[in-house]
């Protein structure tokens, strides 16, 4: 696996993909694609295969492949191979089996600061790698963070590069992302930079620490209005036992001015994570899951359903 031929040494043409792989089970599906667990017949190795129906032109898929071809990192789901038939494109991806970070959050309600810091440290390392290679993810959210395995101490894997962008001059303008995670400058239809990923990481950290999102409204108009103003709070009693260093970490990321969002993650923020994880060790955050908390998790679920380009 991993040997590439044809089309600049990467894409491989094939008549029948089932001659190479056994299809074992469906892992997910969308409007024009399905993801299967497959086993390569020659080696017995298992992969996740994204099968995409061909359209006249699939710029999102082309972009995703262009990005994935450039990257290799222990916290990013890897593209192992790419096939094309007359009717489909087949992306052969590294198989991860631990499920979504979102699902573990739903099961636990919230994370301890120690656990949250370990998760975010790995996210920062992965995103820092992307930024150093000129790539902005643009759709970071709980559902796009996976556990490599079912182990409690499994590493985190970043996935779904359909909306990612290879920087040309450091400035982007397409309005895209997921409501609830998108940065103010994106909604304002202004040119923006890789700092939009910093904002999304701040939102993810906030949710991990308390179990609900910083921005939630029934109306997208009201939701976007709050995001543009960066209007959020550390509400009592949910944040009462969370350290000031953890709150400062969130404040540094969820702020309206993109110039103030640090983009050099490793030098600016990995130290901050060590600080807040070591000053507030908790076995479990004992904050009651009240009705508002449960309602907020519902809003997280609704936002996840809207993972798309908001206005391309």
UniProtKB/TrEMBL annotation:
User: Which SMART domains has this protein been placed in?
Assistant: S_TKc
Task: Please list the residues that bind ATP.
Answer: 55
**GO MF terms, alphabetically ordered:** ATP binding; protein serine/threonine kinase activity
Taking every annotated instance into account, which residue ranges of this chain make up the domain Protein kinase?
21-274
SUPFAM superfamilies, per this entry? Protein kinase-like (PK-like) (SSF56112)
UniProt key word Lipoprotein: no
Keywords for this protein: ATP-binding, Kinase, Nucleotide-binding, Serine/threonine-protein kinase, Transferase
Q: Which InterPro entries match?
A: Kinase-like_dom_sf, Prot_kinase_dom, Protein_kinase_ATP_BS, Ser/Thr_kinase_AS
Q: What family is this protein classified in?
A: Belongs to the protein kinase superfamily.
Instruction: Please give the name of this protein.
Output: Protein kinase domain-containing protein
Q: Which organism is it from?
A: Pygocentrus nattereri
